[in-house]
Amino acid sequence: MDRLKTSARLMIVSDLDHTMVDHHDSENLSLLRFNALWESNYRHDSLLVFSTGRSPVLYKKLREEKPLLTPDITIMSVGTEITYGNLMVPDDGWVEILNQKWDRSIVIEESKKFPELTLQAETELRPHKVSFYVEKDKAQAVSKALMERFEKHGLDVKIIYSGGMDLDILPQGAGKGQALAYLLKKFKTEGKLPNNTLVCGDSGNDAELFSIPEVYGVMVSNAQEELLKWHAENAKNNPKIIHATERCAAGIMQAIGHFGLGPNTSPRDIMDFLDCKLENVNPGHEVVKFYLFYERWRRAEVENFEPYLASLKATCDPSGVHIEPTGSEHSLCDGIDGMRSIYGDKQGKQFRVWIDRVLPTQISSNTWLVKLNKWELSGEERKCCKTTVIISSKDAAVPSDGFTWMHVHQTWSEEETNLKDHSSSIIVF
Ligand SMILES: [Mg+2]
C-alpha cells in the first residue's frame, strides 16, 4: 500500500453484508454517516479495508447498489483474494501461499458425493474457494466427514460455515483472519504497521478477524448467533472486543469512540456548521462539509439559509473559477448565487450526495489540491463527477481559521460519459 508513506493512523477492516452495509436500511443512512466521517477525518492518513465473503462479481454488484466508499484494500471470497486500490491489483504473494496443499478439483470431486451439499453459483466458485449451501442441522456432520476425505488426499483445507447456510471450503492458510494476518505482517516488514486496527463483523466467517492479536474488534449489534457464540467461548474476557448496541456502520462508529481511536462524530450528525467549531479541521473535512450542505440545500433541509449563503460566498476567492462537467465556466461566487434556483428542488425525493477518495495534496505552505469523486443519487440514477478543488488557508499554521476555495474543476467520470445526457442549464456543484 504505497499511498501512505508512514503507518496508518487507523486501519478499519470491515465485513460488508450486515456490517458495513445494513440491508434493512433502505436509505443507507448509517453507511452515509460512516462515509462522511471517514472521508473528512480518516481517508488522508488511514486505511479502509473491506473483507467480504463475496466473490469479485457479487462485490462489484453490491458497490453498484450501495453507496460504498472505495477501500484501499479489498479482501474477497472469504480471505482468498486480496487486491489493492481502485484498480484492484491482486496480491500474487498471497496466491502462492494459498496454492500450498490445495487441489480445487479434488475438493469439488469429493464434495459431489454429499447430497446434502448444493453447489453455489459459478461466480462464487473461485480458484481458492469452493462454496455450497447446506442446512443448519447437517452442517457439522458433513464438515467432519469432508475433512476426513480431504486429509486422505493429503490436502490441508479449512471449512467455514456462516450465515446459517453457506459452507465454504478453502485452503488451510486462507480465511479472513489469515488474510489480515498476512497484511499486518507485510506492513510490519515495510515498517508501516498501522497504529491501531479495528475489525468489524457480524457472522461466523468474521470470527477469525477477532482472533488476531492486538486488534480492536466490534461485533455489530445485529451480529448473528454463531459469532456471539464463538465470542462467548473464545474471547469473552478480551476487553478489546465489544458487542455494539448500534447496528452495522453505526456500530463501527460507536466502537471508534469506545476505544478512543479518533473522532467518531459524523459530519452528517452536525446540523449547523455555522454554530460548530471543530477541533479537527483539514481540507478533506472542508469538502465533505460543502457537499453535505449541497445535499441538504437541494433537499430543503437548510434552515435560515441567508447566513449560510453569505458564509459560503465569504469562503470563495473573488477571482475563483468553477469549471463544470459540461465545460462551462463561471466564477465561484456566481455559482453560490446560482444555488438559489435549485433550493429544495429535490425535496421529498430520493436524493443523496456522498464523496469518495478525498485525497488532499499540499502544494504550497497554505494551499491544497484536493481530488475526490463526488457521487449523486437522484431517484434511481447515480452519477459520479471527478472533482478537483484548490483551497487555501489564510494561516498555514492555524487552518481552523478557515479555508478559501480558489478553484473547482469537474468532469464526468469515464464510466458515466457514455451513459447519460448531461446537458444542464443550471449551475451545479
Ligand atoms: Mg456479514
From TrEMBL:
Molecular functions per Gene Ontology: magnesium ion binding; sucrose-phosphate phosphatase activity
Keyword entries, A-Z: Hydrolase, Magnesium
Sequence ranges assigned to domain Sucrose phosphatase-like in this UniProt record: 9-260
GO BP annotation list: sucrose biosynthetic process
Required cofactor names: Mg(2+)
Highest taxon in the source lineage: Eukaryota
Family per similarity comment: Belongs to the sucrose phosphatase family.
Function according to Swiss-Prot or TrEMBL: Catalyzes the final step of sucrose synthesis.
Oligomeric and partner information: Homodimer.
NCBIfam families attached to this UniProt entry: HAD-SF-IIB, SPP-subfamily, SPP_plant-cyano
Protein name according to UniProt: Sucrose-phosphatase
Biological source species: Quercus lobata
